[in-house]
Design brief:
Elements (H helix, E strand, L loop, with lengths): L1 H13 L17 H4 L12 E10 L8 E17 L2 E14 L4 E16 L3 E15 L32 E15 L5 E10 L22 E12 L3 E12 L2 E13 L6 E10 L3 E10 L2 E10 L4 H4 L2 E12 L15
Antiparallel strand pairs: 1-2, 1-14, 2-3, 3-4, 4-5, 5-6, 6-7, 7-8, 8-9, 9-10, 10-11, 11-12, 12-13, 13-14
Length: 340
Amino acid sequence: MKAAYYILLILLGCIGITSAQGLHFSQYFNAPLLVNPANAGFNPDFDYRIGGNYRNQWANVASTPYQTSSAWGDVQVLTGKLQDGWVGLGATLFKDQAGSGSLTSTQGYASVAYHQMLGTASLLSLGVNLGVVNKSIDASKLTFNNQWNGEFFNTSSPVDGGENFTRNNISYFDMQIGLNYACFVSETVYLNLGFSAMHINKPSESFFADNRSVDATVPLRSTFFVNSSFKIQDLWILNPNIYFSKSGGNNETVLGMNANRNISEDGSKQLIMGLYYRYKDAFIPTIGYQLNDLKMTASYDITASSLASFNSSMGAYELTIMKSGSFDRTHPIKCRSPKF
């Protein structure tokens, strides 16, 4: 038990604080397979989950808003066949479109994870994501500095300076690994922390000639998260958590809390409220509703950086939906965790 608390404190102390922008969801806690492949099948009370996410960003700043969507699902297998463990399988499809050049990224991943109980109160998980990334761009929609003739951009002028695209479509293999640890302290206290590393196979990504001097290797992206739940009587479940991701020289830190309010006697109806803060970027209020095993959550990024003077603090909105379920079978492994 003490080891779990020490690990929690160490991770919190080691997290650096800076900001970044990249492919991400503010509701990272509702995109489990993106955060960590060890989350595949990490749902001890249910057999499967399916979910979807949608994010629309900077609609009042960019001529073409940044839009990110995903669909995902995972399932437990071999429950009861392994000694105090099981296997999780999952799949995720992402699509991201950004900017006037219609830069589009489509990513598909298959996930597999192994979950092993350590005694009766803790769980260790190891997972891997294997996938393919495809990116495309419409260079005809882009303009460059040398095409400015003093009055307007002359798109018929040739592009100088090395911005000649040799391809408009690229694909590459991608790989991610992750480790997850959970401690089921009691029926009212739960702790969870994890680490993942994305692009560990060092894929190359470029629309230009291969002999350019610029390094086109996709930088390693490492992600840490710490999550906890505390049940207060039969009315509230508080879920404070923190997320940190680093890619190259860019960092992203998000911290905050969700609170589930029981609004029915049996916990079948829950009101979800939350507030998060992305360091030096945005405040993120969230609201949602859970009916039995169906959960819907909405959030909005209120810009708190210098960009607020340009976008009137209107950053992004997100919508998520998640459904958990069982195959009407008895779960051989029971994990004590806060629930109504």
